[in-house]
Design goal:
about 200 residues, alpha+beta, 11 strands
């Protein structure tokens, strides 16, 4: 029997169920069957949406680059980000992937005029009065290691906080860090793949 869970991974939690380093893991928050694993991952210092399942076909389809599914990130960056930097993120920047230069695919990016409604982070971002911060949204159709952080740094605005808000039409709406929602296969597949089936 397949199981499907949408979870909000908190900050400083590993995207796995076992830890060899004494760090908190998904096991500390989400009581799911032992054969369920995250589809993809989020860095230890990133937050947000993960899908937990024992459906190997779903895992393969979501991680296969040929399907190029959307991932939306809400990102707090250091500095007052400029429209020029946003255009740079959208057009693609060259980052290092596995030690080699890689040109990111075209993306969608925009600036939040006011900070988006996000939960407090524990511990919080270190506040520095003399340095402003900005919130942006970035939508990618690829997922290289630490890609968003590398992209904003390349554009001159280092990432302070990174939240994956959605994958296709599956989002964090109604979930707080450490919370989980159970879904059926039909519910989840319709949100992930319905528009791709024509």
């Amino acid at each position: 029997m397949h199981h499907y869970y949408i979870v909000y991974k908190p900050f400083q939690v590993m995207s796995q169920f076992s830890s060899t380093e004494g760090k908190r893991t998904l096991k500390d928050f989400f009581p799911v069957p032992g054969d369920c694993y995250p589809v993809g991952r989020l860095d230890f210092d990133s937050e947000g949406l993960l899908i937990l399942t024992n459906d190997a076909a779903l895992n393969n389809r979501l991680l296969n680059p040929q399907f190029a599914h959307e991932r939306e990130y809400w990102v707090q960056v250091e500095g007052a980000i400029t429209p020029a930097a946003i255009r740079q993120l959208e057009a693609g920047v060259t980052i290092a992937v596995d030690g080699k230069p890689y040109r990111t695919r075209p993306a969608v990016a925009g600036i939040f005029e006011a900070p988006p409604p996000v939960p407090d982070r524990h511990p919080p971002i270190r506040y520095r009065a003399q340095i402003p911060t900005s919130w942006i949204r970035v939508v990618l159709r690829e997922g290289k290691n630490r890609q968003v952080r590398k992209m904003t740094a390349k554009a001159g605005f280092p990432t302070l906080r990174l939240i994956r808000r959605r994958i296709e039409r599956v989002d964090l709406e109604g979930l707080a860090p450490g919370e989980m929602k159970t879904m059926t296969q039909q519910q989840l597949y319709s949100l992930l793949f319905a528009e791709r089936n024509q």
